[in-house]
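[agent] plan:
  1. take the single chain provided in the ticket
  2. run structure prediction with default settings
  3. attach structure tokens to the ticket
  4. add a short note for the reviewer (M.T.)
[agent] executing step 1
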Amino acid sequence: ALPISQIDAIERSFEAAKKPVLRHHTKPGVTAKEVLPLFPDFDMWKFPYAHVVFDTDPALPGRSEKEQLEEMSQATIR
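[agent] step 2 finished; step 3 output follows
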């Protein structure tokens, strides 16, 4: 079970997310022109995949494009 203080912090974060953000937190001259709702991709929600960003190209260098694409197709994390 989560400690009460952690639960309170989580609840406060949901309340804070309901407030509009009209000014940038570090750039006083930057203001919002429009506020749009952000929703998850409900069609893709059911698939258990993770988005991963690599620091370098994960396909081994020196291989043909076909071989690199084959390696990339095997790089899915589930």
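[agent] step 4 note for reviewer: DSSP finds two helices and no strands in the chain.
[agent] ticket updated
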